[in-house]
Design brief:
single chain; Sulfite Reductase Hemoprotein, domain 1; 2 domains; globular; five-stranded mixed sheet; 12 helices; binds iron/sulfur cluster
């Protein structure tokens, strides 16, 4: 998307399929399929909707060999620029790289498999595969799934330092082996932290293209407002070569992420800045994931909307509620929230400030949440 009125930071050019990002190329707007990848028809329908909204890149997660087989089948039916999200199973890159244009790995996930193998060897393996198959890469750092070794190096209250250290280490390694066809993201669900992380990274490594994102921004309109808090100032400073707006949406509406992303770029071009009330840390903050291949029940999206409706009475309280679509990332991603919900196929886990309170049926959990929320309000 054209950014005529923004003076962009000069970054390296990175080719992703038929697209180029960085080096002043238009900011690419991307999204990710929220459907289980193995549900091929649902995923293809979502890809078509995203393509109609002119998505430049579409990311699809692959967790296991079944997802990988589905992604290969999906590839046969679309010419979209596809990025595979490797999640923990980094070795799936060997199966999938011939079928995609980009590989996203999360430095915080590399330690899960083959624990004794140094992360450096895993990154070299990925870069080698990307080279062989003409793929770009993204080093996707996420505040909710940090490498524990990096967390140990910094005080707990400084959540940005480990993210930066992780991203910088990975860039240094990739550069040292001559692999420069990559971009970086540093996502946090708090837009002020995401803003800070991207600005600090851009100051240290101005030449590396950045993928902007506020993770788990939640449902519109609040999720859009939160995203604007980070994106508008970054874009105005010329930071950002591609972006993704991460919203909790019904499957049929996923293209809203593209429509909103393009609008934010237009607004940045027009000189708009975030409004003071776009994100107020003194009010209730609902964080919810955009769902991905791992989502365990589509009812998660409905649940997130019900949580929002059911908690309106707490709007003026400085509390956070995190709603996540799966049991793999759910616990880590809800740890910092006052109340956390993460979904299984038939039940929802509930936690208070990181302590698990139990698992409840989808239609029971809202009453439990209400009790806990009122308890926290009474303590304030
Ligand atoms: S919390 Fe689970 S379902 Fe939601 S986006 Fe993260 S991995 Fe996917």
């Amino acid at each position: 998307m054209s950014t005529a009125n923004i003076v962009r930071k000069p970054t390296r050019e990175v080719q992703i399929g038929n697209l180029k990002i960085g080096n002043g190329n238009p900011i690419a707007v991307q999204s990710m399929c929220a459907t289980p990848t193995r549900q091929i028809d649902d995923t293809l329908l979502q890809i078509r909707n995203l393509e109609q909204a002119q998505a430049d890149i579409i990311r699809i997660a692959a967790d296991n060999k079944r997802d990988a087989a589905a992604l290969i089948e999906i590839r046969q039916q679309t010419n979209a620029n596809l990025s595979v999200d490797l999640q923990e199973n980094y070795r799936l890159a060997a199966i999938l790289a011939p079928h995609v244009e980009k590989i996203r790995y999360n430095p915080g996930h590399l330690y899960h498999h083959e624990k004794s193998k140094p992360w450096q060897d895993k990154v070299k393996y990925l870069a080698d595969i990307a080279n062989q198959h003409d793929c770009a890469m993204r080093v996707g750092v996420n505040a909710g799934s940090m490498d524990p070794a990096k967390l140990d190096l910094f005080p707990k209250e400084d959540s940005i330092a480990p993210m930066l250290a992780s991203a910088l280490d990975h860039c240094e390694l990739l550069d040292s082996i001559g692999f420069t066809r990559y971009c970086v993201s540093l996502k946090d669900s708090d837009p002020r932290k995401a803003l800070d992380a991207y600005q600090r990274f851009a100051a240290e490594r101005p030449e590396i293209p950045l993928h902007l994102g506020v993770t788990e921004a939640g449902m519109p309109p609040e999720g859009v407002d939160k995203t604007r808090v980070a994106f508008l100032p970054l874009l105005a400073q010329g930071i950002g070569d591609t972006l993704r707006v991460s919203l909790t949406l019904p499957y049929a509406d996923k293209q809203q992420e593209i429509i909103v992303g393009k609008q934010i770029i237009r607004d940045a071009q027009a000189g708009m800045r975030p409004k003071d009330d776009d994100f107020d840390p003194n009010k209730l903050n609902i964080i919810s994931c955009p769902s991905c291949s791992r989502v365990e029940n589509e009812a998660f999206i409905d649940l997130a909307q019900k949580v929002k409706a059911r908690t309106q009475h707490a709007e003026q309280h400085a509390l956070s509620i995190a709603v996540m679509g799966c049991r793999v990332n759910g616990p880590g991603e809800t740890d910092d929230a006052d109340l956390g919900l993460w979904c299984g196929p038939n039940f929802v886990n509930l936690s208070r400030r990181g302590e698990k309170l139990g698992a409840f049926a989808y239609d029971e959990v809202l009453d439990k949440l209400d009790v806990e929320l009122n308890g926290l309000i009474a303590q304030q």
